[in-house]
Amino acid sequence: MTQEKNKLIGASAIPVMLLLLMWAIRFVEYGFGIDLGFLGVHPLHANGLPGIILAPLIHAGFKHLGANTVPFLVLGVALFYFYRELALKVLIFIWVVSGILVWFGGRDAWHIGASGIIYGMASFLFFSGLIRKNNGLAALALVVVFLYGSLIWGAIPGFFPKQHISWESHLGGLFSGIVMAFYYRKEGPQRKKYSWELEEEYEEEDDPDAYWKKPDIT
């Protein structure tokens, strides 16, 4: 129990620190009456390049940040809990690549917020769980779909009638997560093989009549 508790605490460290940083920035904006939206991604403009790194830390208000907090925390902890060795690399890839995609393909506006990262983590967890055919990860994938299944609609151009919703960030994150799920499909937690599956493998290896042990006839 203590080991699992420590593992959960360790998995929470980076997501919690990032969320604390997001909230600290929001309180600074509010307290000093400033708007750091200019630190977001501004597609095809040099002044928008820093936003590739900074945009997920900046939000339009407390409501915007509040809406992102719970899914970011839940998905972030799940990512670092189940994919401890891969999690940081996956997160960095999603963070950077989704920002780059927005910079190249987004509308001429300032794109801010962590929703692209949320989409990326959700898509990684879902597709990685399916690819690995791991019961535990498959269950996690179902939870992700159940809790955040509606996220897919946010990556469709024109789905949101309000122009201030960055579907480009959502789509970039979704794509980045899928890429990582396939790229790391053979690394990280794998489905456990049961005794009867291992016995079948051993029987095949010992079978002298196995087709791969017979000479080719042309």
What does this structure look like?
- The chain has 218 residues and is mostly helical.
- It has one domain (2-207): Up-down Bundle (Rhomboid-like fold), CATH 1.20.1540.10.
- The protein has 8 helices and no strands.
- The longest helix is centred in the N-terminal third of the chain and has 31 residues, at 2-32.
Characterize this entry briefly.
The chain starts with a helix and ends in a 12-residue tail after the last helix. 62% of the residues lie in helices and 0% in strands.
Q: Main attributes?
A:
218 residues, mainly alpha, Rhomboid-like fold, globular
The CATH topology is given as Rhomboid-like fold
Fraction of residues in helix: 55-70%
Q: Categorize the overall geometry.
A: globular
CATH architecture: Up-down Bundle
Kindly report how far apart the N and C termini lie: 61 Å
CATH superfamily: Rhomboid-like
Indicate the CATH class: Mainly Alpha
Work out the strand percent. Answer: under 5%
Number of helices: 8
In terms of structural class, how would the helical and strand content be classed?
Answer: mainly alpha
Cα radius of gyration in angstroms: 21 Å
Main pleated sheet: none
User: How are helices and strands ordered from N to C?
Assistant: HHHHHHHH
How many strand units? 0
- What do the pLDDT scores average to? 82
How is the secondary structure organized here?
Elements (H helix, E strand, L loop, with lengths): L1 H31 L18 H4 L7 H21 L4 H19 L9 H18 L2 H14 L18 H17 L11 H12 L12
Helix pairs in contact: 1-3, 3-5, 3-6, 4-5, 4-7, 5-6, 5-7
